[in-house]
Write a structure and sequence with these properties.
The chain contains 17 helices and no strands. By secondary structure, it is an all-alpha fold. α6 crosses α10.
């Protein structure tokens, strides 16, 4: 019975998918460029490619944060010459990016020839990638690097290689821009991971310094909150950027999605606050402790898994007037509130099973 309840409880937390969208240029994608070397073992170049993607995004992030207006204008005009100037990206670095991508792709295709044939029909690559790259930078508020996992093993290799295969061309600058503008599929997994990190840090602060954490939240002292939870402002900027990208990607592919089934209001959206965060932490921790009375091995921490699209993203990233900080705290308040409701349902199932 206990295992059965655990299985049902786990099913309450629903994970969804994100669909990659782009445009194509058939004459380029049909050309195969032979890389200078191929990994001797599956995925050997993937970590190097990950590093190249991070470096490319980091250059874009610096340019955006230095002068977002110029960066977005250059991208919107597909001005590759000035794009290289303002980002400081060198031809050598971009050629290395292309070589690594092609090496990873050839290695992958050798091991998964049928899979590539199956998925290539669902993936294409856009002819003019800089406008989309600029849009992605704007959505993340200059934190594109947050899209890339810390380790190559966390990258969805199927998706990545489908994108590389679709984005191949002779010009390394165009190919690197195409791939980089098409990696928004990574946002959802990264967002889920960051929400887990956020909860673990909050939970640790609650257990070890409850009075300090509560006092910090009561004072609405954001800087002290960062210090107490050992999380930085950049962490929260990256998190809300990933939420924006996740929402945008989903809506592009599901323009008529009905949010009303998941509720259509957010009680704390207009005035999100740290004290609400405190209440959520305390309540989630309390419910988790009660669950552990029935199943000690059930939760060490709360695991956040997002449904196909979390209504919190819609509610909180569409606040008017737009305010990055307000969106951030609204989203965290809202997400924790919804997670609390989920684990309360789990507790109710355990309580019901114990009395019937």
């Amino acid at each position: 019975m206990k295992k059965h309840i655990l299985a049902i409880a786990a099913a309450i937390v629903v994970a969804g998918t994100i669909t990659f969208i782009a445009c194509n240029k058939d004459n380029d994608t049909n050309q195969i460029v032979n890389p200078s070397y191929v990994s001797a073992k599956g995925g050997m170049t993937l970590e190097q490619l990950r590093n190249a993607m991070v470096a490319y995004y980091a250059a874009c992030d610096r340019a955006y944060q230095d002068d977002s207006t110029t960066f977005l204008s250059v991208c919107a005009n597909s001005d590759m010459t000035n794009f290289l100037t303002i980002t400081g990206l060198t031809s050598e670095a971009i050629t290395d990016y292309q070589t690594l991508a092609l090496s990873e792709n050839e290695d992958y295709i050798n091991k998964h020839p049928n899979l590539i044939k199956e998925v290539i029909q669902r993936f294409s690559c856009q002819e003019y990638p800089l406008p989309r790259l600029g849009k992605l930078a704007s959505q993340t508020n200059g934190h594109l690097s947050a899209l890339i996992p810390e380790s190559a093993v966390e990258i969805n290799r199927d998706h990545l290689n489908s994108i590389i295969y679709a984005c191949r061309c002779d010009n390394p600058h165009i190919m690197a821009a195409r791939i980089s503008s098409s990696l928004s599929y990574m946002a959802k997994r990264q967002l889920s991971s960051m929400l887990n990190v956020f909860w673990r840090h909050c939970d640790y602060a609650y257990v070890n310094s409850p009075t300090l954490l509560k006092g910090t939240c009561e004072k609405e002292d954001h800087n002290l909150f960062y210090e107490v939870t050992k999380l930085s402002q950049d962490f929260f900027d990256e998190l809300i950027g990933l939420a924006n990208v996740s929402y945008s990607e989903f809506i592009e592919d599901n323009p008529d999605y009905d949010f009303t089934g998941n509720g259509d209001t957010c009680s704390k959206c207009q005035q999100p606050s740290l004290i609400e965060i405190w209440y959520r932490i305390a309540d989630i921790h309390s419910v988790s402790d009660k669950i552990k009375e029935y199943a000690p091995d059930y939760f060490d921490t709360v695991v956040y898994m997002l449904p196909p699209i979390d209504p919190c993203i819609k509610w909180c990233t569409n606040l008017q007037p737009r305010n990055h900080d307000r969106e951030q705290w609204c989203y965290l308040d809202c997400t924790m509130e919804r997670n609390l409701l989920k684990i309360q349902q789990v507790l109710m199932m355990f309580e019901y099973a114990a009395t019937h």
